Amino acid sequence: MKSIFILFLVIFCILQDHQGSCMFLQSCKEIVDNSTLQRLKEYLFCFYDEEVRPTDDHRNATVVQFGLYIHQFEVNELSNTVDFHVWSRMTWRNPHLTWEPSQFDGIEWLQVMSYEMWVPDIVLHSVSNVDVDTEIPRVECWLHHMGTVLCVPTVVYTTFCESDHTWWPYDSMNCSLYIASWSHSSNEIDIHFVNFDPDGLLTEDIYDENLEWDLVHISQTERLVESKFGVQFTSKMLSYHIILQRYSSIYTSSYMTMVLALMTMTLMVLWLDPRSTERMVVANFNFILHLICLQDLQWKLPYNGNYPPKLIFFYENSLVLAAFSLILTSILRHVQELNTDAPAWLSSVTISILKSRVGQVFLISILDPKVSASMERNTDDNTNLVSFDRKESTWKYTSILIGWIAFLSVLFVYVIMLAVFLPTCNSAKTFVVNT
Question: Do 234 and 224 touch, CB atoms closer than 8 A?
Fold first, then answer.
């Protein structure tokens, strides 16, 4: 009988006061000699329902100011995801949680746990490999006597990112964080951007920079999206578009060094005398080294992304040039061992080129020491420095000419490849932000 009387008494109190406080009861439980903070919390949360959206009129939207500060991030290249460790700042007004500071010893702010009052269900909507949590983490919030609530929870947002490995190892990642209410429409929760830059609160000792990736760009957009529940309402969605770029790492030093080494070895093969044993040894070693480098690069390169790295095209084309130098070495060694004369048209072309000033200076003096000595003995008459012994095969000079043309051609191709395929930190900044 007593319990039924208490129940009717509580119902009568609720009908008398919309906020759930009874005019003739001082609190939800018997008042003892409590502290001021205890009396304030009993005053605020007596019959308070934390699941009801705080508004005087359900047709009015609760305006939520949302800000985001990226404290740290971790890149997982295997899953192509990024974990953003952020501080999210949310501010809104709760008209049901107000008080007069003069009645509570001048208290203007009160610390309240998030689970003790209504908080907006603002969560991440980006595609992720983790489950969606529709509640903010348990955190202590600040409540102002005018009803303003301020919460700054620490959250980890995990999202898939679009990778651009064109200029690997200076590759980039385009990540998007979509923030919105999980179940409320824009007529119920109206979320807006607010700048959240806690400079002065963080020091360099607290902030941990990523040692491999750098956040080079961040932009914000907002739009209305259709309800995921299939009902006729829209929600306000905030979007953060983040561009990450890899620092110059150990990959840059190792693979750029190998680029120069492979290029030098290939040109060295074409420079040496085709008849020398050293040229054949270097040519074979150069080809094998190209294969090893390509195999190693395969394990280091990410297997995802829209575009393959240009560095691998450089290694592939360099492998073709290495194979060409090896094959050419074998052919020229065989040509110089021929005892028959070359065709008349080939001998004529060879003689014309070798008699020219360019052929004498840039070809014979470098590649044929015997003819170079002949040039020094005939300095008074250098118009006809090249004399062909009728008994000597012209294939020797033809092979020298072919080797010279091959050397200059491969050198020109390498210059083009360096300009087109070699990655630099400046070339990676051409990544386009897709919003």
Answer: yes
